[in-house]
Amino acid sequence: PHWHSEGMFGKGLISYPHGLWIDAENNVWVTDTQSNVMATAGGATPPKPAIPAGAQVLKFSPTGRLLLRLGTPGIYGNDETHFSQPFDVVTDSKGNIYVADAHDSPPVNNRIVKYDRTGKFIKAWNSCHPSYARQIDCSHSIEIDSQDRIFVANRANNQIDIFDTEGKRLAVWPHFGKPTGLYIDRRTDTLYVADSQSSLASGFQKGTHIGSAKTGVVTAF
Q: Is cis: bond before 107, omega within 30 of 0?
């Protein structure tokens, strides 16, 4: 079907949409990954845009009204008000916000950033453990289960990392392939893991691995 203008929103505000989240109030969150102001690695500085975008997280109402902006549009950074290249976003049962801030190309922060429901910075923690072979792309997607545990797709190191809401690492699951995207049905805690990069040499096939977010048992492919 053809979409009419009233069925779209965010035009002119978003440079590189990467992650999407629908919260309990049906608000739409978008991670806008790449800056349209600063050049990425190996690229030339682009012309100055009319409206800076990228390196931000946007919260829209169900009808497309901009309700909240995290980050500084178009500008990379690693403090409370800047992101490197935000991958994905979720909110917990209290409305706290968690942003996976690390793309697979520089600049990278390799962190999860936590804000309260109003957008006030609370804390950040490193999503790349010192023991990991690859210190990049450790948080390509995030999800949250019925217990408010944060599931992080550590695509570079072929595993899922699970944290509590304060950043304590609770578990590492290396048996869901090379996780690119995560989804948890919080009614049943069924975990769906999209694997778009595995090869048979790694012991996994590309596809969707399905299992329990409670036990970690894989039940289907």
A: yes
